[in-house]
Amino acid sequence: MSRRSGVLEFAVLGLLREAPMHGYELRKRLNSSLGVFRAFSYGSLYPCLKTLVAQGWLAEEQGGGGADDPRTPLTNRRAKIVYRLTAEGKERFEELLGQTGPDAWEDEHFGVRFAFFGQTSRDVRMRVLEGRRSRLEERLAKMRGSMARTREKLDAYTLELQRHGMESVEREVRWLNELIESEREGRDRGERSDPEGTQKRHGADPSDGITT
User: Fold this and answer.
1) Is residue 75 over pLDDT 70?
2) Which parts of the sequence belong to the Transcription regulator PadR N-terminal domain (predicted)?
3) Would 212 be classed as within a structural domain?
């Protein structure tokens, strides 16, 4: 399974853990709640759903009519398929939720992982945040080195674009530092941390820097 497919699998299982949904509703949630999926189409989602059903992680059920789907004519009110997470699917999501390898730190996966931090244990959250910070610090060092070597050869606009990219990475590193400190303080007090509140206070977007 490709990294991109793995991100979609994780997101679908996570959203269906909240409630069963039909495909159209699920795609809306992917677009609205997890902005990294705005570029995904039905052609990407439905093969993923079929694969998860074949794996036994999702079950298909007959739901209500399709009148709320703008693609469905008003004269066609056939029942839609609703996808429900199975017990095996819940175990699979819990397994994915506990993974903290490099994929969890990368641009394409981190924003999705962060969206489910409310269901993630504190230790896993810390490892993901620290891994993401380490990856960005490495990227920042390379960007600075590249700029130092090439700045005399660049025109003003290209140089400004590179500065903008560096500032975006620096901003996310500062945001991660604040989140990590919040997690540590919460652990020291034996309290549940509030990553959502921290995000709102500092105006941070976990999808910053994420490419699709």
Assistant:
1) no
2) 12-95
3) no
The structure's pTM equals 0.76
Question: What does the alpha-carbon distance between residue 7 and residue 86 come to, in Å, rounded to a whole number?
Answer: 19
Write down which residue in 45, 69, 97 finishes a domain: 97
**29-72 pLDDT, tens per residue?**
888 877 666 656 667 888 999 999 999 999 999 875 444 455 44
> Is residue 78 located within the same domain as residue 147?
no
Whether the CB-CB separation of 43 and 118 falls below 8 Å is answered with no
Q: Tell me the residue range of the domain where 166 lies.
A: 104-202
